[in-house]
Amino acid sequence: MSPDSSEQQALRRVHRKSFFICSAFFVVALFLFVLVEKDITWPLIALQLGCSASFAVMGVAVGRGRLSLRSSRLGSVFIGMVAATLLVHLTGGPASPYFQIFGATPCLIAMFTPDDRLPTVLCGAMTLGAVVLLDTMAGVSTHLMILQLTGFAMFTVLSLIGTRTYRRQMDAAHEAQQERLQALEQLAESERRRVRAERERAQMERLVLVGQLAAGVAHEVNNPLAYVKSNLAFLEREARGADTPLDRQELCDVLSETRQGVLRIQQIVMDLKDFARTGEALEEGGRLEHCLQEARRLASVRLGRRSEVRLSLAPELPLVRLGERHLVQVVLNLLLNAADAVEAADPSRQPRILVGARRFDDVVRLEVDDNGPGIAPEVLPQLFAPFFTTKPPGKGTGLGLALCREYVGRVGGSLHAENLPQGGARFVLLLPVAGMVRPAVA
User: What does the domain layout of the chain look like in residue ranges?
Assistant: First the structure.
């Protein structure tokens, strides 16, 4: 015999409790009989105690798994109907005040066993048999007996109809619950896919930025690499010239320059590696000044020495809600876009980018100005649309500004662009101060 499932064990505990309650009910009923009847007979006492003991034994048997649930239900119906028949017989037969119990019993059985028709059918059959037996023993007329049987049969049929209706309602409720659970699971899976797609999209844009930065890496690395090679050649010549005394101060200066060149190359490689690494941004606590410095350092690899990026920051800027990794990515994207716009200007000019930051109440206003040709009026409305770009094919994905606005909007900030009166473009970034609650911008 296989072990009961948790559901079966729970049902057994419920049935055991019900049988114990029934057992206690017969004992309480006995005391009530004693109080009301006064001259209660010994057969009636034995009947009540016997029924109480029978239900107690069934409760123990069900709880220990010795008796199946269905057998216990049928057994309780049999014991109950026998007890009801004897009770009516001992208290006056068809004239007994308890005779109407035969009409209520099928309803009670149907109520306690809504998922099984057999106990109700058995109860109805035993009810009709008990009525025939008691009426025959009491000499009731056939006409009255037929009327009684018809009434009790109708109670049984109504009980079966109620059981069927209840079972259908429970099945419908169970199906609806399963559909709700399935819908919730599908919604959760859809949300997981959306979050995963957003992460992949953010990582793709980050790698695109790395690719743009890598275009200037060769030039930036070649500068320190050139004097590292030159210094190594100088040290080699000095080491081979045995007749020439070594100037220790000059030697220290050469080694210091060489170390600085190597560290510069290492810093460039580490910056690109860290920026390309997948990672989660903090929800808030971005240090604005630190992030602007890091974004400018990263952009310098792409912009080169001809470009000028100036920071104009108010003192003691607070932390902002946007995480540092996303904040660096947003500012870096704006710097590179500004540089690309200036480089495309006609006539050509040296890129000059001004980054300013000021606090206004519970937000920090960050402005990125350039000296480029500005943004065409027909381009402004769709500038932040995904996959929209004015750059040549192969140079832009059209995702950078869309992602920037999305990152900022998630923390309740905003990002928009405008043209400066004196020429050039300005990107305005409003970031909530960390700890300030602002609704997310859709």
Answer: 6-181, 283-442
